[in-house]
Amino acid sequence: MNTIVHRSGRLVGENTDGYGFRRALEAAGATPHRVFVLGAGGAARACVVELLRAGAEVQVANRTRERAERLARSVEVDRRRARAAAWPTQDDLDRVDAVVNATPLGLHNEDPLRGRRLPRVVIDLVPMAEETPLVRRARGDPECTVVDGLSMLLHQGARSFELWTGLEPPLAVMRAALPRAA
Fold first, then answer.
1. At what angle do helices 17-28 and 149-165 cross, to 10 degrees?
2. Euclidean distance between CA atoms 134 and 112, whole angstroms
């Protein structure tokens, strides 16, 4: 849970990760069908759920294979699950149309896919004022659709605003407050 809402005299936890991810994809016009998700934490879980809901085939890789397997086993949507996999090789990336970086790689100038060609959609959840190396590299390819962490953060914030106030979020104002365009 990342948002606390007061309802009928009780505090209720909500999670805006899946909503923010889904809306960021929609805003970019991205509809991936075969996706490699890097990471196995809470944000990765929300992405896997939303991707499965959208009908995508999903593979999950993590530094520790056991965590990827646990995530893959724990999420089921319409009797479909993600599949745990090793960190993607170039052959793996050539077989998917999107990759999601749901790891902290990028916070300290790392590119989790350094040296590999990127699929046509790159989603990097790391919300930084400066572009991560992965986002910068993907933006350099005119054939690549890029969704960065600020876009997801924007939509998460909009959902929290709506939950707290019951009002339509001022998305344009919120977008203008970001450190760079999302």
1. 120
2. 7
Q: Does the residue 181 lie in any domain?
A: no
Quick one: tokens of 3?
């948002």
Contact at 8 Å (CB) between 36 and 61? yes
Cβ neighbours for 141, distance < 8 A, ≥ 6 positions apart:
118
Q: What are the 10-residue block averages of pLDDT along the chain, 182 residues in total?
A: 84 89 95 97 96 97 95 96 96 96 95 96 95 96 95 94 93 91 73
pTM of the predicted protein model = 0.93
Element (H, E) at 6: strand 3-7
Query: What residues have CB less than 8 Å from 101, skipping those under 6 apart?
Result: 38, 39, 112, 113, 122, 123, 124, 125, 126, 132, 134
The tokens for 139 are 């933006």
Domain that holds residue 160: 13-176
CATH number, position 168: 3.40.50.720
**Residue 113 identity (one-letter amino acid):** L
